[in-house]
Amino acid sequence: EKAGFDHFMLKEIYEQPKAYRDTMMGRISEDGRRVALKEIGMTLEEIRGIRKVQIVACGTAFHAGLVGKTVIEDLARIPVETDVASEYRYRSPIITPDTLVIVVSQSGETADTLAALREAKRNGARVMAITNVVGSSVAREADDVIITQAGPEIAVASTKAYTSQLIAFYLLGLYLAEKLETRDEKWIANVLTSMNQLPEQVESILDQANVLKQVAESISKHSNLFFIGRGVDFAVAQEGSLKLKEISYIHSEAYAAGELKHGTLALIEDGIPVIALITQEQLYEKTLSNIKEVKARGAHVLAVINAGHEGEVSKSVDEMFAIPRTLPLLAPALSVVPLQLIAYYASLALGHDVDKPRNLAKSVTVE
Ligand code: F6R
């Protein structure tokens, strides 16, 4: 059932190109220029009436929501708040009838996420669910449901479910942009063209897994490290850090690169690994200067960069991993893949149970 892979997690990492294709399938018009989300029952008037969006989820699904916030704000120009469900449900959030609440849950059964959904509905908000399981509690109770077509995810550490959630957010962002006319048709068609290239681009990353295995093996000798990035790179840094923690038990922290100097930089000492994501063109110089700051204090820096930037970045880092060129907003769908593989191979190198990490369950149906 592992189809020749040693672990479900590795199999699921390799299933991502298919998960991307399946999640896009049937949701893009034949001419490739428009998003068709027939599952969304909101009228144009209702969409125009959305004053704010709240994205609520747990763990990895929450990290997908962090990217979703940037996507929706950038494409549809609607303000978006994000919350972990266990906080949202108890903080008496301001939920109005013109709030769209989006819950994200692979399983659709996470107790806190379900409670957040119910709280939102009680307050009269429209609730949209992004979930991988048809007929799950979240799917049944939400007003609108976008099913991610990742297929069953067995490994406790979520991989293809996360990236399929990103695809769902891209589709939703484009859908809202088209309805609200915040972006023109040509621009939307251009993003869709780039989205269609993602599956092959992920394949090209997977072909370089052996490089990441070596990186992971050297990381596995450390007990602390940092992930840094700005913008959506910071969102991906948080996911990379969680993935590494949960299956390798190595402590890491994800930091917004510009925030380091407000305290955390004190922890940077000789030899500490720093994984820096630097894929966002508009933030490139800023992140590069943060990389130089940690490097000057002895950090061993692995930079996840855009292909073509090798020459400029190589002087400031120890190692580089290049992802294929795409639009800045879409980069998370590529840049997270090397981080998943690093987590996998680090866990393997340390001899842990990759698919069933200690203390964790696949579906958290109790608070
Ligand atoms: C981490 C992981 C968890 C889940 C979280 C939410 O790899 O899998 O953080 O993302 O428990 O689960 P769902 O998406 O089923 O609500």
Quick one: overall form?
globular
Helix proportion range: 40-55%
Order of helices and strands: HHHEHEHEHEHEHHHEHEEHEHEH
Strand content: 15-25%
Within the largest sheet, what's the order of strands?
A: 2-1-3-4-5
Instruction: Report the uncertain regions.
Output: none
Mean pLDDT: 97
Query: What is the number of beta strands?
Result: 10
| Gyration radius, rounded | 20 Å
Number of helices: 14
Distinct small molecules: fructose -6-phosphate
Give a description of the structure.
The structure is a single chain. The chain has 367 residues and is an alpha/beta fold. Helix content is 46%, strand content 16%. The protein contains 14 helices and ten strands. It has a five-stranded parallel β-sheet with strand order 2-1-3-4-5, sandwiched between helices. β6, α11 and β7 form a beta-alpha-beta unit. It is globular. It starts with 7 loop residues before the first helix and ends in an 18-residue tail after the last helix. The protein binds fructose -6-phosphate. Fructose -6-phosphate is lined by residues 58-61, 105-107, 110, 113, 157-158, 246, 363-364. Residues 58-61, 105-107, 110, 113, 157-158, 246, 363-364 line the site of fructose -6-phosphate. Its main location: cytoplasm.
